[in-house]
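quick one before i forget lol
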Amino acid sequence: MELKKTEKLEHSVVALTIEITAEEFETAKDKAFKKAGKSITVPGFRKGKAPRKMIEKLYGEGVFFEDALNIVYPDAMDMAVKEAGIEPVGRADVDLGEMPENGGVTIIAKVPVAPEVEMGEYKGVEAEKETVKVLASDVKAELTRMAQRNARTETVERKAKKNDTVDIDFEGFVDGVAFDGGKAEHHELTLGSGSFIPGFEDQLIGCKAGEEKDVIVTFPAEYHAAELAGKEAVFKCKVHKVEETILPEIDDEFAKDVSETCESLEDLKKEITDRLKGERQTAADREFEEKVLDVVLENMKADIPQAMFENQLDAVVQDFGYRIQMQGMQLEQYLQMNNMDMASFRNLFREQAERQVKVRLALQKIAELENIAVSDKEIDDEYAKMAEQYGMEVDKIKQAVNADALADDLKINAALKFLTDNAKAKKKAAKKKADEDDAENE
């Protein structure tokens, strides 16, 4: 076998013309006969005992052609890829070319390869970055949320007020007829939560335990149940119990109760401030990183083969499938529940997958241009970190994670850090007054 021609096509595809000699293909057909001939029946011969020529005469000269091609193809491709010095990134599109004059077979394999990447400006690019602030009002709001999480309830005999929780039975009627899904017993409803139809909760304010009340509301015009949309309904309600939510006093004792490290309210405020600042800084750094990458990708040139996008899309979909499987659901069930086919589901992630491919190519090129290297110690440290994270022995992690792939990931991470460390952060442009007014009026 011989690589006769290498031709670069558009979108980073290389066409390899491979010639298989008549002798090589004859050997492959003989192997195909020995494998498949055992199951072929020919009149006058016991099953699997007919000679190859007899089978070819009965079923045609090409009876073993496809199997022979499948036998010879892997070795032919390995040889051609090495000779051409290319890096395939997906499956080849294979056709047969003209048959050589001396017999044999010509294979034309169109192979998607890693694209040539040309970077534009990537050092010192500018991008907006949020200035992280934590205001006293932010800390106060967080303290209030913590107090609500640690609140207790107490049954009261008075009339229900906003923010009280009522235990009610209800049944809904439209035009005097009960409708499906409109009935419940001992349902706990927090008045003012907005979890029921607008106007429902307000009408229960002022009720006491033991009272009955007809609550009259109109379903929204865009209500999800079309048969109820826009219609007036009467809910016959009975209040069993009224409970008041009692928030804890936000003081030093509260701080000790909600935190293992705080001895005073001031300690807790500082802890909240530090936590919020850290969370916001992480989010701001991530947003800045994405904006820097946006600029870098705009400046990058690469004729990326579609196979790379599809491969990454496969990985994203597979990862989604694994995650919902951990929740006890198969991907097929998820698609059925959401009335989607696989093609439309894949399209939901296409933009994400394409960006991931472009980002990885850009960072690989930057790592190459900046001579970013990864030491054996860094690889070992990463293996140790992964072993601790997953609660596994280091040797088992090494068996599961290829060292070259891990080194490549570490280079990419280092390239991303280089990129953001060298980028210039500029303050976010202040919103114009007109924009703020528009936002308030929406």
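fyi The domain at 304-434 is CATH 1.10.3120.10 (Trigger factor, domain 2).
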